Every structure is written in C-alpha cells, then in structure tokens.
Backbone:
C-alpha cells in the first residue's frame, strides 16, 4: 500500500467538476427548480391561488400578487402551473433518461462483450434507429392507443403469437443456414432445441407477465397513461446513444490485461461483466445520460406542444405553450414563461453534462489540452 | 456497382417491412376513417358503419389491408339501399321533433341570445375571445369558451340553438299529406311511421320519420315495405321490381302502377328502371291503385360508387409504372395524394382566392369550401405565372414548400456554423471561443417552437415587419412573377431564420470538435514549418480534413431535414410535409401518412448511400483500399 495521502475518487471528481463554473451554477439552478416543483402544493397554498380551477373573474390577469406571473385565459395561476408542470417535465426527462440508460447499458454491454451475431443484429438495429427522423415517428407512437394494443386479452395474444411466429421463423432460418454452411455437429440439434425452448419460455413468461401482473385496465386510463406513454416513447427512441457508447467501451475493455487476467483466474462471464467491465464504463454512460435528460425534456415539450403528450387539466411546459399560441396578441407572457423554463432547464442539463464530461472523462480533457 | 445493387436490394426489403409495420401501427391507432365519420356525424347508424367498413375493406385484418394497399383491389360497388316509405294518415306536431345537426346560427343571433342569458358578458374578461369566435362564426370554439365560463350556460345555449335549428328546416310533405304550421296532416293512416322530406339551409336532404303512437288499421295495403334490396350486377341500369313488395294477398295484374314526379321509367306492370350517373340519394314516388283505392309509396334509394364491374383499383406499386392515382386519395384534404405532395394548390372560383388558404394549409374546419368548388376549379388562372421561376415556386406542392424552407435554412446555418466553428477551434480557450460555446449550448437547448412563437410575437405582432405565417399571401396568383417571388421570400424569412438558428448549434459543435481533432496533427505542423501562410494552413490543410466527418453527418441528416420541421411548420402554419404528416396521422388519413413516411424512408436510405459516396469523394484514403 502506498503511504501517500490519496485523494478519494469522489472528491477528485468533485474538485474537477467545481472547476466548471457554468456546470456548478446549472446544478444549483436545477436543484432549486426541483425543490420548487416538489414544494408546489405548499407554494400554491401559501399564495392562495389555484393551478387547476378555472375562474372567469381571474382570467388573463397581469403580473401581481398573488398571481406572480399572472393568470391564463382560464384564470389559472401561471406560476403554480409552471412549477406543477416542472414536476411532470422533470420526471419525464429524468425517468426516461434513467430507463434508456439502463436498457442501453445492458444491450451495449452484451453486444460488446459477446460480439458475434447478437452484436451485428443489435448494432444494425441501433444504426437504423439512429438514421430515422425521430419526431415524426414519435408522433405516430404518441397517437397510438395503448388500450387497443394492450387493453384486451385478444390483442395481447395476437402480439404474442406474432412474436412467437417471428422467433420460430428465425430459428428455422438459422437451422437452414447453419445446415448449409457447416456440417452438423453431434449435439447441434439438441442445442437448437434447447435454444428454441428457452426462447419460447421467455416469450411465455413475458406474455404471462404482461397479461396478468400488470393491471393494464387501470394503468391505461387518465394522465398516468399519458406520462407512461411519453416515457416509453422517449425510451424507445433514446437508448441507442448509450448502447453504442457502452458497446464501444466494452469492446475496448474486454481485451485489456485486467479482464484477461480475471478470465484466466476462472471468473465467470457474469463476474467479469459486473465486477470488471461495468464500473469502468459507468463514467461515459452517466455523462451521456445527463445530456439525454435535456433532450428528453425537449421531446416531451415538443409532443405536448403538438397536443399529443400530457393532456390539459394537468399542466406541463409543453402544453402550456400549446394553449398560449392563441393569445400571443393579447398576452404574450403566457407563451414566454414556459418556454423560458424549458430553455433554462435544458441548457442547465447540457452544461451539467459538459461539466461531468470534464470531470469524469479525463481522456477528453487530455485531448483538448493537447490541442492547446 | 455490385455494392450499389446490394444496397438497393437491402433498401427494398427494408422498405417492404417498414411499410407493413407502419400499416400495422396505423391500424392500431384510435379511429379509422369510418370511425371518424361517426364522430363527426352522429346521425350515422351502426349498420351503416358495418356496411361502410366492409366497402372500404376496413373489416379485414391489417395485413390483408396492407396487401390490398400495395397491390390493389377490385373497386367496391356499393349496393343501392332501398327503403320504402309508406304513406299514412294522421296528424303529428313536428315542431319539437326536428333538429338540424348541421345548423350553425349566425353571430348576431348568438350575441343577442348571449346577452339575454348573461347580461354581463360584454364586460367579462373572456369577452374578446367570445366576440372573436362569434365574428368568425366558429361555433365550436364559441361553445368551448362559453363552457369555460359556465357549463350550465353552454347547455342553455345549446338548447336554444337546437330549438332554433328547427326553424331553418324546410319540410316537404310526401304524397297527399298537408303541412299546417309544422303539423303533418294526413287523411288516411296505413302504417306505424310517418315520413317526410327535410331540406336544411345547406341544401342537404333527408327523409325524416316520426313513429306514431297508436296503431293504425292496416286496411288497404297493396305493397309491404321491406328494408333493403341488394343489387348484384352494377353494369346494368338499376331495376326495381315492385312485385317483390306485394302484400301476400295481392295480385300484380289487378294493380296499376304510376310514377309521381321522379326520374326513371316505370312500366305498367311495376318495373322501375333508372340509370344512375353519380352516387347519391334518390327518392322515387309511386302510386299504386286498384279499382277502389290508391296507395302512395316512396322508395328512398341510396346509391354509392357506380363502377365498372371489372374495374381494378391500382395499388401503390403501380405508382412506379407512372400511375399517379395509385397513391390514393386524401380523406381530409379531398384531393389525390399525388397532387397534395407534388402538384399545384387548388384554386377557388375566379382564381383570386387560392383554395390553399381554405383547404390546403391544414385548416380542416373549412373543408366544406374545398368540396364545393375549390378542387382545381380554374386551373387556367395560375398559368399566368407558370412559365417563370416564381410560377414554379407557387405551384410546388407540399414537398416543394418543405424544400423551399429547408434548403435555405440548411445553407444559411452551414454558412454561419462552419466559419464560426473553425474560428472557435482555432482560438480555443479565448473569450470568443467561450462565448461561441455558450451560445451553441443555448442554441441546442432552444425549444424551436417556442423560439418561433417569440419571433412571431416580435416581428409579426409587435413590429409588424414580416407576416406571421403561411407560405404566401392569399390571392397572389393574379400578380406578376416578381411580386410573387418577393411575397414568398417575405413569408419565408422568419421560419428560415428560426430553423437555421436551430441547426447552427449542432453544426457548430461538429465543426469545432472536428477541427480540434485535426489541428494538433503532424501535417499541420509540417505545413506551418514549410512557411505557408496561416490562412492556407487552416483553410487548405486543416479545414479540408476536418470536413470529412462533417460531410458524413450532413448526408445522414437529410431525412431529418425532410421530416424534422414539424414544429417549425406548425408554428408558422407553413403547408409543408412535416405538418402534413402530423395532420395525416391525427386524422387517420392512411394514404397520406404512409406515402409521406415511405418518402422519408427512401430519403433516409438515399442519405445513407450519399454519405458513403461522399466519404469516398472527400477521403482519398478509403478510395485506395
């Protein structure tokens, strides 16, 4: 053991992060914004206004007390709507970034570590997803009726059978292709059957889980459904960046000495992935995820602005803008504030991600320092 | 060459899978075209819905629909539906039974009623909005505004409107009955129902029916009413054998049939013949008599598509052999999809009002004018500008409009981003670099729709420099070509500015990062050591090499240019592809949605190919391999 006073990893990171002043300011702004949205009910009670009930008397009020930022065309208080909307926007941005980071990491790790056909398939898929214009497809998905897809047993069953049929087709194709390319080894057919039964067991499990464990009927109604749908959509289109990052880092790491040593010592694949590779690829993933929160908030706002995301009695920054367009002549401030909130939040997340990159990803810093 | 062929084969497979998947997705969306018809017209009955779905093939599973869309299908022949209308005799007060669902009261009447019900409305804060919707005769937004005030008030106004709507209905009695102040008086009663013809203020006709409360003696009935008769062979003129309607104890030979005020021919022994020239509804009136009695009857015949029996509706694949009609017909815009995407906007009436304002810019509420007379009624009026460039611009369809917005925006953003990116990388860590970096971050965080709204407020509302939206001033067709050009330019400036600022952020980051990669390279040092001027080092050695990754990204972003402007086009009500796609998805306009998606998918693939080709072009290292 060295006797030098060693600085812990976290404090080193924190010191590096502190150097990025904009990121620090952004962090503070974001924290205060989160606190403000968490305290929304109390602030509402303190101000004595309402973000939901419509009153004719208080419509389109200018700045003042108790309506700090005025009120909208229905007499709802703009400021409390903003902080309530912040709850939704931040939650959607954060949860979707987290979920897509988890999914992307798993996929990227598996693809990078095992390589081969899985890798090619996954990466073809991510390539395809990356080259598609996202927003139009998001619109299609947002317009989908989840109730029609999952709400009834028969539609679920249809999806299940389609998936099963596709898997069977893939198996057959594999059998034929393998038969053509290489001679069938003794245990080949048994292994194929094993794979097939495993695959069908997984499908069965997923089907049973989807049809019985999740109360679709109650979940697919009301505003929770729209939030859930938004998160699902954003995750569906957002996991590729992280997957590619994780795959690239894993590919680099898996041939390094410490991994080879671990393998030589007889460590299992699970152990190598979990104990040796995963901690080492965490840094770029965290950076990518924090950058993704910002863009996810933008997507949420865009979809809500188009009227596809969060539906009006509940407020989000996007749908507040949607209503405000009609009143741009008379009360432009209605359109100004939600957009400013979006801009500030997204910019803060971007600066934060930049600062975290500087702190966590020393390669980048070295590279840019060399350029100086 | 082999590579290209392989790639295009791949493209084809992907396209087929993609379009099938899209069809599946679209059919999982809430509301197909027929369902939408129900929501817009509450009078449609459930059996009609089943019939319509069958006619359009919507009752089939989605993959059958997909194959039919792709390959085509025999044109559905809508069988005529015949309802008999029995003459009856009774007296019924109709005044409380009539409601015209299409009635829209005028603004004066509404204002009057509103001030009666709610004396303070002109002083209320929402009065402006209400007045606005009143002046536009926008009933739905008027009612919405009222509902925001008080739901009860809305109910009362709706009741008033329903009551009022009956006044505008014109009632035409059928056979022998008399109408005295909304009272149907008929001398002799034979059936349980009372029928009459209604015409509303839009000229729409409907046969109304009132069920009578007491049973009537079935004294002299010659014909029995049946519900429908399906005509199998549509190539022959429509033939109705009245003998089929005979009551059980009647003999055809004893009766005399005569036609009352109807087109078509009726033979003495009860065969009615009529050649329909267009789909529609037809009421034929027939009198049947024997020696003592006369019975009047009406048949309400509804006839759909009159098609050739063996006509084949060509599917999407026929588009590649040059059949424009194969792209289908847009339900929302009432235009062929090909025209919508590539053709000229429709012109209304005398050409001074382009229908683009009422039917082709997403203003779906006014599509009635579209149906009536706008569909390319006076094509000759745009030929004035045809031969010139501006004529070409004016006639560009949705795709043309999008390209006119996108290309300048892309060029402008590149013109800004590339020099700034080079500068910022060259002077890394200078104050200018920090400033540019900060602004770039703001640029990529900017919600483009909000920025657009703010620009509209500043430039169109506050300072009134540019128009707030649209692609050209309505009625510009009659003008000279220079005026048209300037007008379109004037309309394009704001959206182009907004879009290019949106793009500048990401391009600048790419350019800067790429330059930073290149600048510390050895060949730059060599170039400097040779004594070349700094300008040549940066522009010829560094910039050219830095351009390689940027060019690739540029080619890959072509599809995003095509479809990614949904938000900008929405904010500036720019009739482009992005908004068309959005409208099509929201209105279940299957044909439009899928064609637009396929076009963008093809563009994605072309972009990929182009990226490869450009890579070969700009990077000699790859060419050598």
Residues:
């Amino acid at each position: 053991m060295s006797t030098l006073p060693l600085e812990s990893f976290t404090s080193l990171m924190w010191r590096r992060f502190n150097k990025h002043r904009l990121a620090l300011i952004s962090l503070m702004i974001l924290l205060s914004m989160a606190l403000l949205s968490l305290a929304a009910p109390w602030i509402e009670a303190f101000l004595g206004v309402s973000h939901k009930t419509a009153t004719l008397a208080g419509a389109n009020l200018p700045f003042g007390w108790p309506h700090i930022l005025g009120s909208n065309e229905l007499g709802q208080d703009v400021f409390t709507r903003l902080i309530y909307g912040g709850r939704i926007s931040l939650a959607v941005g954060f949860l979707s970034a987290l979920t897509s980071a988890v999914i992307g990491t798993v996929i990227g790790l598996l693809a990078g570590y095992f390589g081969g056909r899985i890798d090619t398939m996954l990466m073809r898929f991510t390539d395809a997803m990356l080259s598609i214009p996202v927003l139009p497809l998001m619109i299609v998905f947002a317009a989908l009726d989840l109730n029609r897809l999952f709400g009834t047993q028969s539609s679920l069953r249809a999806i299940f059978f389609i998936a099963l049929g596709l898997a069977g087709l893939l198996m057959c194709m594999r059998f034929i292709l393998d038969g053509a390319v290489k001679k069938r080894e003794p245990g080949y057919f048994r292994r194929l059957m094993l794979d097939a039964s495993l695959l069908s067991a997984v499908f069965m499990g997923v089907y049973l889980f989807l049809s019985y464990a999740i109360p679709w009927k109650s979940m697919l109604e009301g505003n929770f459904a729209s939030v859930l749908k938004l998160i699902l959509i954003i995750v569906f289109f957002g996991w590729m960046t992280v997957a590619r990052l994780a795959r690239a880092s894993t590919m680099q790491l898996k041939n390094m000495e410490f991994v080879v040593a671990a393998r030589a010592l007889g460590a299992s694949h699970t152990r190598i992935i979990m104990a040796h590779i995963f901690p080492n690829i965490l840094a770029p993933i965290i950076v990518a995820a924090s950058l993704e929160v910002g863009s996810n908030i933008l997507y949420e706002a865009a979809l809500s602005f188009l009227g596809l995301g969060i539906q009006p009695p509940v407020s989000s920054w996007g749908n507040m803008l949607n209503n405000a367009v009609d009143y741009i002549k008379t009360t432009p401030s209605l359109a100004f504030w939600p957009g400013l909130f979006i801009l500030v939040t997204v910019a803060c997340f971007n600066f934060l991600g930049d600062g975290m990159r500087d702190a966590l990803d020393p390669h980048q810093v070295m590279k840019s320092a060399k350029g100086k | 060459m082999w590579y290209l062929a392989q790639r295009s084969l791949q493209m084809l497979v992907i396209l087929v899978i993609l379009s099938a998947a899209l069809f599946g997705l679209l059919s999982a969306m809430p509301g197909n075209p027929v369902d939408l018809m129900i929501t817009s017209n509450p009078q449609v009955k459930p059996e009609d819905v089943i019939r319509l779905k069958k006619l359009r093939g919507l009752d089939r599973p989605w993959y059958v629909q997909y194959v039919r869309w792709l390959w085509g299908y025999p044109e559905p022949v809508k069988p005529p539906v015949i309802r008999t209308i029995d003459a009856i005799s009774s007296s019924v007060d109709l005044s409380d039974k009539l409601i015209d669902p299409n009635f829209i009261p005028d603004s004066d009447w509404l204002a009057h009623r509103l001030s009666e019900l709610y004396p303070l409305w002109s002083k209320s804060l929402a009065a402006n909005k209400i007045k606005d919707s009143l002046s536009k005769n926008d009933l739905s937004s008027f009612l919405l505004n009222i509902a925001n005030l008080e739901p009860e008030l809305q109910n009362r106004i709706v009741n008033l409107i329903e009551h009022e709507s009956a006044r505008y209905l014109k009632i035409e009695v059928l056979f022998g009955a008399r109408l005295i102040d909304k009272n149907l008086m008929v001398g002799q009663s034979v059936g349980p129902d009372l029928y009459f013809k209604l015409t509303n203020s839009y000229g729409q006709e409907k046969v109304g029916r009132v069920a009578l409360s007491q049973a009537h003696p079935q004294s002299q009935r010659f014909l029995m009413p049946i519900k429908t008769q399906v005509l199998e062979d549509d190539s022959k003129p429509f033939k109705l054998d009245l003998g089929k309607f005979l009551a059980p104890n009647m003999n055809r030979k004893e009766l005399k049939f005569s036609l009352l005020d109807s087109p078509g021919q009726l033979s003495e022994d009860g065969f009615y013949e009529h050649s329909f020239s267009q789909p529609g509804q037809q009421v034929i009136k027939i009198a049947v008599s024997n020696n003592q009695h006369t019975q009047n009857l009406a048949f309400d015949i509804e006839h759909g598509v009159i098609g050739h029996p063996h006509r084949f509706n060509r599917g999407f694949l026929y588009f590649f052999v040059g059949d424009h009609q194969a792209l289908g017909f847009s339900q929302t815009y009432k235009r062929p999809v090909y025209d919508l995407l590539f053709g000229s906007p429709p012109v209304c009436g005398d050409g001074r009002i382009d229908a683009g304002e009422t039917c082709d810019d997403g203003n779906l509420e006014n599509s009635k004018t579209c149906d009536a007379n706008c569909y390319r009624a006076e094509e000759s009026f745009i030929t004035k500008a045809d031969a010139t460039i501006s004529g070409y611009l004016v006639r560009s369809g949705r795709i043309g409009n999008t390209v006119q917005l996108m290309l300048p925006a892309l060029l402008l953003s590149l013109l800004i981003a590339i020099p700034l990116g080079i500068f910022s990388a060259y002077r890394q860590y200078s104050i200018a670099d920090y400033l540019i970096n900060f602004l770039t971050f703001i640029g990529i965080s900017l919600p483009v729709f909000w920025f657009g709204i703010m620009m509209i407020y500043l430039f169109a509302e506050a300072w009134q420099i540019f128009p707030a939206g649209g692609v050209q001033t309505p009625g510009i067709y009659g003008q000279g070509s220079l005026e048209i050009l300037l007008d379109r330019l004037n309309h394009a400036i704001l959206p182009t500015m907004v879009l290019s600022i949106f793009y500048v952020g990401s391009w600048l980051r790419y350019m800067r990062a790429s330059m930073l990669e290149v600048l510390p390279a050895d060949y730059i040092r060599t170039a400097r050591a040779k004594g070349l001027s700094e300008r040549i080092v940066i522009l010829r050695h560094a910039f050219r090499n830095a351009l390689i990754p940027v060019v690739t990204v540029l080619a890959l972003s072509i599809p995003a240019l095509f479809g990614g402007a949904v938000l900008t086009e929405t904010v500036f009500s720019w009739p482009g592809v992005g908004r068309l796609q959005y409208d099509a998805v929201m209105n279940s306009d299957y044909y439009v949605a899928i064609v637009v998606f396929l076009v963008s998918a093809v563009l994605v693939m072309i972009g990929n190919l182009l990226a490869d080709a450009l890579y070969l072009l700009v990077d000699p290292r790859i060419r050598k391999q």
Remarks:
- Residues 365-372 of chain A have pLDDT under 50 and may be disordered.
- Residues 78-114 of chain A form the longest helix (37 residues).
- Residues 102 and 181 of chain A are 37 Å apart (CA to CA).
- The radius of gyration of chain A is 25 Å.
